[in-house]
Amino acid sequence: MAQILAIVTMDRERIGGGAPIFIVENQEQQQKVSFSLEKILDATAHDLKNGTMILVKHS
Predict the structure, then answer these.
(1) Does 57 score more than 90 pLDDT?
(2) pTM for this one?
(3) What is the 3-state secondary structure (H, E, C) of the chain?
(4) Which of 7, 41, 50, 54 has the fewest CB atoms in 10 Å of its CB?
(5) Strands of 2-9's sheet in order across
């Protein structure tokens, strides 16, 4: 079972749901924010290849 802890995206219009959403302006910023959240949340970042990354906690 896995849980989505956060979403990091460049496109606010395509994202919704119950996880915290971090809006970034470019891919470099997306990588930095995702890497930081990965460490803070002890999670794994997954790139969906559509301008969105999700941070998932695998149990």
Answers:
(1) yes
(2) 0.92
(3) CEEEEEEEECCHHHCCCCCCEEECCCHHHHHHHHHHHHHHHCCEEEECCCCEEEEEEEC
(4) 50
(5) 21-23, 2-9, 52-58, 44-47
Q: Which residues pair with 45 in a beta bridge?
A: 55
Provide the residue range defining the domain that includes 31: 2-58
Identify the helix (H) or strand (E) that includes residue 56.
Answer: strand 52-58
What per-residue confidence (pLDDT) applies to 59?
Answer: 84
pLDDT tops 90 at residue 6: yes
Cα–Cα distance for residue pair 32/1, rounded to 1 Å: 26
Output the CA torsion 36→40→42→47 (10° steps): -30
Q: How many domains does the chain have?
A: 1
Alpha carbon distance 57, 14 (integer Å): 22
